[in-house]
Write a structure and sequence with these properties.
The chain has two domains: about 1-55; about 90-245, 2-Layer Sandwich (Muramoyl-pentapeptide Carboxypeptidase, domain 2), CATH 3.30.1380. It is built from nine helices and six strands. The protein has helices at about 1-30, 40-55, 105-115, 130-145, 150-155, 185-195, 210, 225-235, 240-245, and strands spanning about 90-95, 100, 125, 170-175, 200, 220-225. The strands form two sheets. A four-stranded antiparallel beta sheet has the order 3-4-6-5. Strands 1-2 form a two-stranded antiparallel ribbon. The longest helix has about 30 residues, at about 1-30. Mean pLDDT is about 85; it is low at about 1-5 and about 25-45. It binds zinc ion.
């Protein structure tokens, strides 16, 4: 037995080499031939690229009006009064705490407050919709207390207030109400970070006084809808005036 296997060994080596050679040549032909599985990933790649391009259409900035009082994108500021100036929304609902907002804004606010509550944060609606007449009273009181120059940095003339749209709300939490301290509470920070997910923006951000005409108000939220809030976040544009180039 030992003698026979010694004689076979020199023969086995070239046979193994020949088998390996045939295998390599056969694999090479298979890899090059069309219709085999190696072409499928290439097709998948190209179709994936096409699909990705279709998923990202350009954001349509004219989808909703920024001029009509009942549009969720309406832009109201010192130089853009509501039209009509005594506008009142027709779908006001309770936002809690005796405050009113428009239907879509209430739904979004409740969704946001619920999400905050799951993280142990307690947010409260403090001042929602104000009619033209109510805003007249608020503004006159501010002027009487602080003088017109100061009043104009923190209170809107009637017909020029976001609160009259039914889409604006002042909130509080973390032991702070409508005050600067709200921005430093866990609640205020959470809202600044997550508000856009629910369709809200901090309407008067820090450092944008020259753009909005108002000082930083971490408590004043404006509902603009999830699509616009997400696009403003994506493009890192913090004011409506800048986003719509006003
Ligand atoms: Zn406000």
């Amino acid at each position: 037995m030992a003698l026979r296997s010694k004689k076979l060994k020199p023969l086995l080596f070239p046979i193994i080499l020949a088998i390996l050679f045939i295998g390599v040549v056969a694999f090479g032909i298979r890899a090059d031939s069309p219709g085999t599985d190696t072409t499928e990933p290439r097709q998948e790649q190209s179709s994936h690229k096409t699909k990705h391009a279709k998923e990202k259409p350009a954001f349509d900035k004219s989808r909703y009006s920024i001029d009509e009082a009942d549009s969720i994108w309406v832009v109201v500021n010192k130089s853009r009064p509501l039209n009509p100036i005594t506008y009142a929304p027709n779908d006001l609902m309770s936002a809690g705490n005796g405050q009113l907002m428009r239907r879509a804004a209430v739904a979004a606010l409740q969704e946001m407050f619920k999400a905050a509550a799951t993280e142990g944060l307690n947010l409260q609606p403090l001042s929602g919709y104000r009619s033209y007449d109510t805003q007249q009273t608020v503004y006159s009181r501010e002027v009487a207390t602080y003088g017109q120059a100061v009043a104009d940095t923190q209170s809107a003339k009637p017909g020029h207030s976001e609160h009259q749209t039914g889409l604006g709300i002042d909130i509080g939490g973390g032991g702070c109400g409508i005050e600067d301290c709200f921005g430093n509470t866990a609640e205020g920070k959470w809202v600044a970070t997550n508000g856009h997910t629910y369709g809200f923006i901090i309407r008067y951000p820090e450092g944008k006084e020259a753009v909005t005409g108002y000082r930083y108000e971490p408590w004043h939220l404006r509902y603009v809808g999830k699509a616009l809030a997400a696009e403003m976040k994506r493009t890192n544009t913090v004011t409506l005036e800048e986003f719509f180039s006003l």
